[in-house]
Each structure stands twice: as C-alpha cells, then as structure tokens.
Amino acid sequence: MIAKKGDWVQIYFIGLNPEQRASNLPEDTRRVPLEIRIKGFLLNDEAKIGDTVKIETPVGREVEGKLEEIYPEYKHNFGKPVIELLQVGKQLREMIEGDQE
Amino acid sequence: MRDMSYDAVMSRKNEIMKKSVGVDYTKYEVEGIAFDYEEMMKDAGYTIDEIRKIQLETGVGNTPLVELKNINKLIKKISPKGKGARIFVKDEATNPSGSFKDRRASVSAYRAKIQGYKGVMAATSGNYGAAVASQASKRGLRSIIVQECFDSKGVGQPEILEKARACEAYGAEVVQLSVGPELFYYFLVLLEETGYFNASLYTPFGIAGVETLGYEIAEQSMNQFGKYPDAVVITHAGGGNLTGTARGLKKVGAVNTKIIGASVDLHGLHMASDNDFNKKSFTTGHTGFGIPFATFPDRSDVPRNAARPLRYMDEYVLVTQGEVFYITEMLANIEGMQRGPAGNTSLAAAFALAMEMDEDQIIVVNETEYTGAGKLPSAQLTFAKENGIEIKFGDPIKEDIPGKNIVLPDHPSKVGVIKYPLEKLRKSYIKELKKRYGKTEFSEKELKFIAEDLRISTEEVKKLIEEVL
Description:
The complex is a heterodimer. Chain A is α+β, with helices and mostly antiparallel strands. Chain A contains two helices and six strands; from the N terminus they run E-E-H-E-E-E-E-H. In chain A, 18% of the residues lie in helices and 38% in strands. In chain B, the strands form four sheets. Chain B has a seven-stranded mixed β-sheet with strand order 3-4-12-9-10-11-15, with helices on both faces. In chain B, strands 7-6-5-8 form a four-stranded parallel β-sheet, with helices on both faces. A two-stranded antiparallel ribbon of chain B has the order 1-2. In chain B, helix 7 links the parallel strand 5 and strand 6. The longest helix of chain B is centred in the middle third of the chain and has 22 residues. Chain B is globular, with a radius of gyration of 21 Å. Chain B starts with 5 loop residues before the first helix and ends with a helix. At the A-B interface, strand 3 and helix 2 of A face helix 5, strand 6, helix 8, strand 7 and helix 9 of B.
C-alpha cells in the first residue's frame, strides 16, 4: 500500500538507544531502546511502509520517522465475554432480588 | 545545535520547567528541604470561588452525589448488626472528558491561555491526558500528550490505548513511548521545542482545581443529610486527588471527616520493567505511584510538588485488582452505573470499610470515571488472560499475587482491605530524604517542615529520625 501526501499515518523512531538510556533501569528495560510512535499527516508526496518520512502532527510539528501504519486503526475492544464476571452479576442480583426500590 | 542527549536535557530541567510553568518556586524556599507550602498554594493557586468560576466556563464540576442504594442494601445484609455505613459516590464521570481530572486540567488550560501560551502538554497515560486535551480544545489551545504506552513488543494495554484514542478524539498530538521513566526526558525535549505550557499534575493550580471536588462533597452532604460525611475514600496515585479533595473539605469546615486513601496493591511489579508492564491490570491508582509519591512528593515534574498526601491522609488502605473488577461489575450490574475500574479502587475500599462502620454513618467515594472499550473489566481480564494471568474466584486478600493472578471474591463479604500503617509511610519519607539529599541532620526550620508534611509533632519527627537513620 502506498501512502500519499496528506494521508493520516503513524511513524516510528527510536528515542534513545539502549546505551543512551537512563542508568537506573531494571535489566529487561535497559536491554531495549526507548521507542516512540506519533501520528500525523504525511508530508512526503508518496511513501510505503518502512520508508523514512516526515509528518505534520495535529499541533503542527514536523517529525521524521519510519512509516509504520497508514490510517492506523484502533484495535482495542470490549474484550471477550468473561465467564467469571457473568457469574458475579448473577450472584449479586440473586442476593438483593426483590429488595430494590 | 543544542545537546539533546539524556543527560544534557535532564540537566536543563529547571530552566525548561521555569519557562513552561510560569511559577517562580524560589520564592517559597525556606531553608534546606523546607519550603512554605501554604504560601505557595495561596500565591500561585486560586481561591475556591475563582476556581469555580473558571470551571463553570468549561462545564467542569457540579457533579451529582449519588447514593448507591442497592449496594448499600447488600452491605446491610452482610454486615454485623448495627454496622453497614451508607455509601454515596461523587459521579465525576459526568465531567466533560469523563473524570475528576477535568478539574485539574481546567485551571492549567485557563492559566496557559491567559499567560499567552500556544499550547499545553502533559505526560500521562491516564485520564488526565484526555482532560488536558479536552480543556485545551475548549480554550482554543493546542495539546500534546506524552504516554507510556507499549512494551518492547509494541503491545499496549487496552486501557491505555483507549485513553490515547480519547486524547486523539479531542485533537491532541499523542506521543506514544515504550516503557521507561525517560518519558520525562522526552517530555522535556518537547517542552523545549514547542514552548508549550506544562500542565503538570503537581502545580499549585492543578491541586487547587481539585479543591472544588472536596468543597462540593461537603456542601452536597450538608444539604442532603444535614452533616458532613464521616469518611471520604479517595483513590490515591500521585497524591493530587487526595490533597485537593481534603483541602476542599477542610475549607468548607468538614475538618472531622476522615480522609482515607486507597490504592490497588501491585507489590512486586516494577514500574519501569518492560516485562512487568503488561502484567499490571491497573495503570494508575496503584501502589507503584501511591507509595513513592506519598513518601517523596518532590519526585514530580515541578520543583515543589503541591500534592502532599501525608499532610491530609488519616488512613491508607490497599485493595486487590480482583476486588476492583468485582466492584466495577457490581456497580454496573446492581446499581446501573457502568464506570471505569481505576476510579472504582476507592469504591472497593469503601465497600469493605462500610461493613466495619456504624449504620448511621456516611462514607463518600470521591470519584468515578468514564468507561468504554479497553477500560471495561471484560477488556482488561481478556488481556490479562492473554498475558498468562490466572483469573479465579476465592479470597482476594489471602490469595492475590500481582502479576500471577486476579482473584475475584467468591462472596461480597470477602471484599476487604489491607491496612497500610501511616507510620510506615512516614518512616519511608525520612529514609527518602537521606537517599535523595544525603540528609541525616536537620535544622529547626526543616524539622518544622517535616512535621507539617507528615502531620505529626516535631518531637515525633525527631523520634522517627532516630529510629530510621
């Protein structure tokens, strides 16, 4: 997929490499870089995923990074039905049944 | 070209902060660790009337105080005879962006506007980002929200992703970072680049913004049942909610209302650990903030933190993740109020405490927050299961192991609290002074300040110092 100028995209870049990170980090965090993701409007005429591009963010900043997603989607959701939670409601309703005003 | 390395930027911290907050903190310095807290609050904050006016302009505040009638019936049913206080909840989810954080953000956005800043910035993964973005939008300002959002595999918690979505909906630029305290470094980089106002959670005006919450609780309580609440339970993270609410209550005259802080117990999970990041189901309102911010308030992003919870807290209790999800389900199912889980931390604590309190007593839960995709127990428990966390029924207080399981009470009577002694927090506060400043000896003025900060006598401070150092 090719992104065109003005498309809403997400870029990715490294803020700090592992050796540039703060000194007081736990071991697992110190091993990995500090990564940054920002969304904005593509300023390049054309680009594909993985290209280094410039974007204009909603506040008007120009930021450079690797093109990661085009029209990034919100993927979080309401989750699956959780059988345990369904039982909570059932038990509590039975306990106060007939008591509601 | 300025040096943008971690150390160079951090060393410019004070200079950057001064420009971005517009408060000369040196005015309030007294001696050593001591500063004049009340003078700072008076001078750099606003009166309750001024804040109410500012908040009215953007539709913040005047939220309802709601009795949880069915939950209260349930409490009566399972409490010993004569016990079972009535719980009322301050429904802060009715604020513009859906949480009490609008109160805090409203004043910062107002302040930024009158001082001529073009935009506001906040570093937060919580509701505060949405509040700042929403209030900025109302005042015609731009906003940048910097979030700790993903682990190194690019996986983010549904709750944080939802808040990012909310911020973007209000027109903010959202900068999403992987795990690490260097969030603050990048926040400074952006403040320097943009010259925006730092809508820190910890400025005097940010805290003054929450005072109206306590003020309204006292007023509504007096109007509705002719007395101030016996206790107010407040979810405690960075300390601003507790400090502001308590100050507001006291300003009206509710000086005998017990102030109870409540956090979710996340002991054993490191706040800066890439591995632990997605094993936490709570991104705020937990001990990872609650304890460090109570014991060393000046760890914040401003030179002097206006949120100083130990000045006001009468009791500190911990609840477990499972209890909060359970109570969230209870609130939705039998009370008809679907509200976000983090805000229900204090409700879980109140439920347990009500069973110990007398039946003629009144306990107020000081907030609720909006909920939606990502913030629901179903979203978070699905995510927890995917991350190998065991979900089960049982006795949460006895069986809870943060990062390993989430224990839902098998009966409402199993909702309990772990009482965390204030003495322990005060001792840690003294230890932090040694750790941070290398202080082992204190002047008379410093002792007086510590006494005020810990709400004990100078004699007791001296005793604590002897015991700890």
